[in-house]
Automatic annotation (TrEMBL):
Source species: Natronorubrum aibiense
Record InterPro entries: OxRdtase_Mopterin-bd_dom (IPR000572), OxRdtase_Mopterin-bd_sf (IPR036374)
Domain Oxidoreductase molybdopterin-binding per the UniProt entry, residue ranges: 8-150
Name used for this protein in its record: Molybdopterin-dependent oxidoreductase
Pfam families: Oxidored_molyb
Length: 166
């Protein structure tokens, strides 16, 4: 776990009051606590984490809930083909095609330990696709909003993430 770079936790991230909301183009909007998530089937994903800053953390083992499982509980409408995943800090969000997001994991653990706030806990989005980008791994996930229209480039955290590279 020490290989994964830590950043300061934004002041408006309050992990004590955390809950995940699933909103938008769904028949059953959800509000899930960490306890709700741990009651679902948990899966593991192991892989490297390569950052645009140039560093790589090898063989990180993430454990959590497949996003598709959560979306199934929310019953997406047929039109909800896209998603915005928002962080608790209010600034960071990333857009995904729904099918790609469904394969990702909402990680609750990293290398066998509860995911700390420094590493994005209580829940961090971990894309599992081979073409994943580091800015898609969203810390402090607070909301998944399904949308009927493709999000624009302004809806992604790519520019924000790349602006943080020193």
């Amino acid at each position: 776990m020490d290989d994964l770079k830590q950043h300061d936790i934004p002041a408006d991230v309050n992990t004590n009051e955390w809950a995940l909301r699933v909103t938008g183009a769904v028949e059953q909007p959800l509000r899930l606590t960490r306890r709700d998530l741990t009651s679902l089937s948990l899966e593991e994903f192991t892989g490297e984490f390569a950052c645009a800053e140039g560093w790589v953390a090898d063989e990180l083992s993430w454990r959590g809930v497949r996003v598709g499982t959560i979306l199934d509980h929310a019953s997406p409408t047929p039109e909800g083909d896209f998603a915005l995943v928002r962080a608790m800090d209010g600034d960071y969000a990333c857009s995904f095609p729904r099918e790609r997001l469904a394969e990702s994991i909402l990680a609750l653990e990293l290398d066998g330990d509860a995911l700390s706030p420094e590493h994005g806990g209580p829940v961090r989005l971990v894309p599992t696709a081979t073409d994943r980008n580091c800015w898609e791994s969203i810390k402090w996930v607070a909301e998944i909003e399904l949308t009927e229209s493709r999000p624009t480039a302004a809806d992604t955290a790519k520019e924000l993430a790349l602006s943080r590279i020193e």
